[in-house]
Design goal:
The protein is mainly beta. The chain has one domain: Sandwich (Chondroitinase Ac, Chain A, domain 3). 0% of the residues lie in helices and 61% in strands. It is globular and about 35 Å long. The protein starts with 7 loop residues before the first strand and ends with a strand.
């Protein structure tokens, strides 16, 4: 497993990787520029949060490391790593239905409310890392 030592980085494929679930003290990185957006990450073993242009994008409890996070018109995709099972919340479009895939298996449809937040649980304790894909339907 590979934590993100620099807290937030741009990958060569246009995705971002962020968070470090191994930290025992809070760390943050602000004003990180990626493809015209301004990103901010706060992370440690208890929580990981990502904001884009001042708006909520990702949160996990406990903290996670996120690899190859990509936003698309129809949703998001990423690989999440952690030592414990995590509750993840992602900021998406308001009042839309999304199909959630965890480790390639559909978890069914989840509808966002007016805040556009979608929450899901991911079992990480036994496997360490899991691919997640959330697609608007």
């Amino acid at each position: 497993m590979a934590v993100v030592e620099e807290l937030l980085r741009s990958e060569s494929d246009g995705t971002i990787s962020f968070g470090n679930h191994k930290l025992t003290q809070k760390a943050k990185l602000e004003d990180f520029r990626h493809e015209g957006d301004l990103l901010k990450v706060k992370t440690y073993n208890e929580i990981t949060k990502l904001e884009k242009n001042g708006l909520f994008l990702y949160e996990s409890v406990p903290g996670t490391s996120v690899l190859n996070f990509v936003e698309r018109e129809d949703g998001v995709a990423f690989i999440v790593e952690g030592d414990e099972d995590a509750q993840i919340t992602v900021g998406l479009a308001d009042d839309k239905a999304y199909e959630v895939f965890v480790d390639g298996e559909s978890r069914g449809a989840i509808k966002t409310g007016l805040g556009g937040k979608l929450s899901l649980s991911v079992e990480l304790e036994a496997v360490g890392e899991v691919p997640v894909k959330i697609v608007q339907i």
